[in-house]
Amino acid sequence: MDSGCCDPFYRKAIRVSVGAVLRTPMVTGVSATEMVEALQARGWEVLALTPSATTQLSDFKPSGRTVILLGTEGPGLPRPIIDRCTPVGIRMAGGFDSLNVAATSAVALHHLATS
């Protein structure tokens, strides 16, 4: 998690994750760029979820080692981070441009787990 992430140990985060945050490995103290580069150097495919992507999640076939990056609701991920990753979007019904980050993560994780 970079310096822009929320505190995963905030009491509401612990409650809504049903304590899963206490069992989830995390890395802190690095920039998002350093994190992406380290993951890619170790063979992980890093996806950047963004509405501007030309590749749709439904068409994406994950490798065995895939990481997803989710940005904040509204501004999303910074362009320099998207440019370092594989940008992937979720096809939306007409008139909608994006989902909130919780819905996006649920759709993306389901696709990755079942593909």
Identify the notable features of this structure and list them briefly.
alpha/beta, 115 residues, 10% strand, 3-stranded parallel β-sheet, single chain, 3 strands, 4 helices
Briefly summarize what is shown.
The chain has 115 residues and is α/β, with parallel strands linked by helices. 31% of the residues lie in helices and 10% in strands.
Describe the structure in your own words.
With 115 residues, the protein is an alpha/beta fold. The model has no long low-confidence stretch (mean pLDDT 89). The chain starts with 10 loop residues before the first helix and ends with a helix. 31% of the residues lie in helices and 10% in strands. It has a 3-stranded parallel sheet with strand order 2-1-3. It is built from 4 helices and 3 strands.
